[in-house]
């Protein structure tokens, strides 16, 4: 057991390993158990509180709150609506639409995404890229990179997709009926207005 524990506190623990465990992994397992024992002996309240919560979740003790369920349902409604009402391209389709398609069909989309020139969402286990991010030659519009930079790191790309898709009160046009809110995806030629709207973005799903 660990050297920094008083001898009186050291307890012997017998662990039965499942059949078929490779001998080479046993030292690493012993080390992990020793570290866990150290944590328990130190009785770190915050770490133990987190461990209790994980145990409760694993045991099904904690139920999701009504607010959490509603948030996830709202997110799912948004995903379906944005997908149904938009035009989407896979990485393979973008590859085929290039003048000189790279041999790797994930390119150039994966490279553009890595360089934060475009974004994608995952739907049904597959990445999709909204068509409005590209010009007539299927090259990324420069404004997309500026908008993504204004947003910064976004944990859930569906927030981006929803922001682009739905009418935004900070971007308007005037017609015979009055002032009408415009979706950012339909105003990408209005750089200043779109970037100003991105700076004032809400942080929730809107469908």
Question: Which descriptors would you attach to this protein?
Answer:
2 domains, two-stranded antiparallel sheet, 11% strand, 44% helix, 8 helices
How much strand content do the residues show? 5-15%
What class, by secondary structure content? alpha+beta
Rounded mean pLDDT is 82
Please trace the helix and strand order, writing H or E for each element.
Answer: HHHEHHEEHHEEH
Number of structural domains? 2
The portion of residues assigned to helices is 40-55%
Backbone CA Rg: 26 Å
Strand order, biggest sheet?
1-3-2
* Biggest sheet layout: 3 strands, antiparallel
Protein architecture, described:
- With 207 residues, this protein is of the alpha+beta class.
- Helix content is 44%, strand content 11%.
- A 3-stranded antiparallel β-sheet has the order 1-3-2. A two-stranded antiparallel sheet has the order 4-5.
- Helix 3 (66-85) crosses helix 7 and helix 6 (142-151) packs parallel to helix 8 (191-199).
- The radius of gyration is 26 Å and the shape is extended.
- The termini are far apart.
In short:
This protein has 207 residues and is of the alpha+beta class. The protein has eight helices and five strands.
Topology:
Layout (H helix, E strand, L loop, with lengths): L25 H17 L2 H14 L7 H20 L2 E2 L1 H6 L12 H6 L6 E3 L2 E5 L11 H10 L5 H9 L2 E8 L2 E5 L8 H9 L8
Antiparallel strand pairs: 1-3, 2-3, 4-5
């Amino acid at each position: 057991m660990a050297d920094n524990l008083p001898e009186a506190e050291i307890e012997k623990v017998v662990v039965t390993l499942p059949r078929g465990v490779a001998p080479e992994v046993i030292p690493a397992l012993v080390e992990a158990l020793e570290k866990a024992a150290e944590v328990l002996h130190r009785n770190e309240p915050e770490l133990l509180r987190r461990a209790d919560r994980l145990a409760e979740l694993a045991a099904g003790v904690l139920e999701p709150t009504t607010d959490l369920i509603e948030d996830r349902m709202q997110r799912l409604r948004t995903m379906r609506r944005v997908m149904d009402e938009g035009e989407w391209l896979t990485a393979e389709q973008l590859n085929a639409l290039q003048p000189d398609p790279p041999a790797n069909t994930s390119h150039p989309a994966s490279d553009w995404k890595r360089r934060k020139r475009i974004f994608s969402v995952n739907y049904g286990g597959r990445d999709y890229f909204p068509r409005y991010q590209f010009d007539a030659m299927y090259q990324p519009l420069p404004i997309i990179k500026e908008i993504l930079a204004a947003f910064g790191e976004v944990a859930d790309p569906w927030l981006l997709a929803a922001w682009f898709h739905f009418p935004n009160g900070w971007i308007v046009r005037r017609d015979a009926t009055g002032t009408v809110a415009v979706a950012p995806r339909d105003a990408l030629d209005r750089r200043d207005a779109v970037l100003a709207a991105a700076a004032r973005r809400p942080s929730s799903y809107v469908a």
